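INFO batch 0412 | record 1 of 1 | parsing
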Amino acid sequence: MVQSVVIFSEIIPTILAVSGLYFLFSGVLDNKRTYTIAGIGLFVLAVFVPFLILGSII
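INFO prediction complete | emitting tokens
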């Protein structure tokens, strides 16, 4: 149980947030609206995923 909590609360949100920031910054710098929207979506998803998954696990 502890290993799955660490994965869902620490590792997956970090990967989503870093990739979201990458897409966000590259979209802003290259003037690509789809990258910017994807970056915002991934970053917001990284914020809410731990609450949704851990709420159902615990």
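INFO post-check: The mean pLDDT is 89.
INFO record closed
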